[in-house]
Write a structure and sequence with these properties.
- By secondary structure, the chain is mainly beta.
- Strand 15 and strand 16 form a beta hairpin.
- The protein is elongated and about 85 Å long.
- It folds into two domains: 210 residues, Immunoglobulin-like (Sandwich); 153 residues, Sandwich (Immunoglobulin-like).
- The relative contact order is 0.13.
- The protein contains one helix and 24 strands.
- This is Peptidase.
- Keywords: Signal.
Length: 418
């Protein structure tokens, strides 16, 4: 019964492929199932050990083709080596598989496979449901070519982006063999055929010499410059003068910052009072940015030393630019649902102009477990601190990625504000 179903499926697949113009040769489609022992490495955030199991894969491809043809290969996961752990229920359309098929014989290489992020809800403790992965292979040489499934990655994008990397623990038998005949002419095209089918950028693991391309999923680019203009006239706290001695402290005003955050689990909004304080050090100022309230809750258990916050403080008034301030990583684990507290962020402001400079909270960035959350002020929050400054060589004027934590001066680039 199983063989009849498979044969019927293969016939339908052949009709679909031929109708789509993918398979230009007269060959029919073939499909074969292969099983192999597999070790899956859960994401570090789960705290789970490696999981060993058996992967069952059905690979389909044309039985015959000609040099120059571009064929479609389909990887159907019948059974994954690991189930959804007893931690979280996975929502609909949150799981995306990518993988690698070894090409051997007359033509060699790795064929990147990718499936859509489509799945039914997957309760914790139940089998994983993976979409079919596809890849296109350009045939370059006559002869027999074998296709063998191997490494695959399971990306889940909620509550945060995580990867489970699964690698063969034994030699895997080829799933299908394609007989490629000489096309008798220019194969046309320059595709190598061994790396076609790019991945979505959700996995970066390498196993047994095969690589899946792309970059870590979950990064989001903060493009705003820290909330439009502050005007330089807001009633922030004012301090500082050329005559103040080193060590003079200036306390800023708490300003309410309404943040729009792009996170690995979607867009969020949060408001927090933020205060910028300064201590004079020579012609520069050591800045401390304090958040009075968390802007986000932890979507999962997060280990110690996994969260790193930073901010671009906007410099306005007589001076222009921005100063980067950074905080330490979390000194203890954070439980799922607990607020992620932003520690004091520190950096050094080196004035690039003489006059009254203003300091305003800007874009907040939180890096955690390979993901990036970017929080941009929805509107200008107002000046927290104003300082009477004297221009210093190499100061911020005209600079964008300003001073860094640890006492480095601000420098270079274009202004973060108008």
């Amino acid at each position: 019964m199983r063989q009849r179903r498979r044969a019927a499926g293969a016939s339908v697949a052949a009709l679909v492929l031929a109708g789509a113009g993918i398979m230009t040769a007269a060959g029919t489609a073939q499909a074969a199932e292969v099983s192999y022992k597999t070790e899956c490495l859960p994401p570090p955030i789960s705290g789970l050990p490696p999981i060993e199991g058996t992967t069952k894969v059905d690979v389909s491809a044309p039985a015959t083709a000609k040099v120059g043809d571009e064929i479609e290969v389909v990887w159907k996961t019948i059974e994954g080596a690991s189930k959804n752990p007893d931690i979280l229920d996975l929502g609909e359309n949150t799981v995306q598989p990518t993988g690698t098929i070894k090409v051997a014989g007359a033509q060699t290489g790795d064929l990147a496979m990718e499936g859509p992020r489509q799945n039914p809800p997957i309760p914790k403790g139940s089998p994983m449901k993976l979409s079919d992965m596809k890849g296109k292979l350009k045939l370059e040489k006559p002869g027999e070519i074998t296709l063998t499934p191997g490494f695959y990655n399971i990306n889940v994008n909620k509550p945060i982006s995580t990867d489970t990397k699964c690698s063969p623990k034994e030699a895997v038998k080829p799933a299908v063999t394609i007989k490629v005949t000489d096309g008798g002419g220019d194969s046309g095209g320059t595709t190598s055929g061994t790396t076609s089918g790019t991945t979505s950028g959700t996995t970066s693991g390498t196993t047994g010499g095969t690589t899946t391309g792309g970059t870590d999923g979950g990064t989001s680019a903060g493009t705003a410059a820290g909330g439009s203009t502050d005007g330089g006239t807001s009633a922030g706290s004012t301090g500082g003068s050329g005559g103040d001695p080193d060590g003079t402290a200036y306390k800023g005003k708490e300003v309410e910052v309404a943040y729009a955050c792009k996170t690995p689990i979607g867009d969020k909004k949060a408001t927090s009072p933020v205060q910028i304080n300064a201590v004079k050090k020579g012609g520069s100022y050591d800045l401390t940015v304090q958040f009075k309230k968390s802007v986000m809750d932890s979507p999962a258990d997060i280990p110690k030393d996994s969260v790193k916050p930073s901010m671009d403080v906007k410099v306005g008034g007589a001076d222009k630019g921005s100063v980067k301030v950074e905080g330490p990583t979390n000194d203890k684990p954070i439980k799922s649902g607990d607020p992620i507290e932003i520690p004091d962020l520190k950096g050094t402001y080196k004035p690039g102009a003489t006059g009254k400079a203003t300091l305003t909270p800007g874009v907040l960035t939180v890096n955690a477990l390979g993901t990036t959350t970017t929080c941009t002020p929805e509107k200008a929050p107002g000046v927290s601190l104003a300082l009477d400054t004297s221009a210093q060589p190499g100061g911020t004027s005209g600079g964008s990625a300003g001073g860094s934590a640890g006492g480095a001066a601000a420098s270079g680039g274009g202004a973060a504000g108008p």
